């Protein structure tokens, strides 16, 4: 019976080690950050900052809580790489309704993005925060929305 007492702690440690090994060295604790963001008909996200640790896993759920049609008031959530030219991205995005306003030639500048959502729709994405600390722009790439303020910062610290 005495051996039983040690069985559980040893198993727990072994599990923790296994989980730890599957993460990259810079990842902190391995706990995913869960964020829910609402998008509205007045072209706003209800969140302007997301703070994460370098390499941390992030799960973002975007919900379009508006009622206007997707063709005139669709929303998405796009995270750009550090130093990406937001204005150039937006100009290219405006011409690509067929790609949900995520321009293909900027694929290398996009860390993650949701689908373009119509009223009442939601989409959940999971991605890993960059390992480099700093500020990363996130925005809605539907034409005009980011310029109207539908954007914010992913802060890696
Ligand atoms: Cu939008």
Bound molecules: copper (II) ion
Approximate shape: globular
The share of residues in helices is 10-25%
N-to-C terminal Cα separation, in Å?
47 Å
Structural class, from secondary structure content?
alpha/beta
Describe the structure concisely.
Helix content is 21%, strand content 29%.
Tell me about this structure:
It is a single chain. The protein is of the alpha/beta class and 157 residues long. 21% of the residues lie in helices and 29% in strands. The chain has helices at 2-22, 70-73, 86-93; strands at residues 33-39, 49-52, 57-64, 78-80, 110-113, 122-128, 134-139, 151-156. The chain has a five-stranded mixed β-sheet with strand order 2-8-7-4-5, with no helix packed on it. The longest helix is centred in the N-terminal third of the chain and has 21 residues, at 2-22. It is globular and about 40 Å long. It starts with a helix and ends with a strand. The model is unreliable at 1-28 (pLDDT under 50).
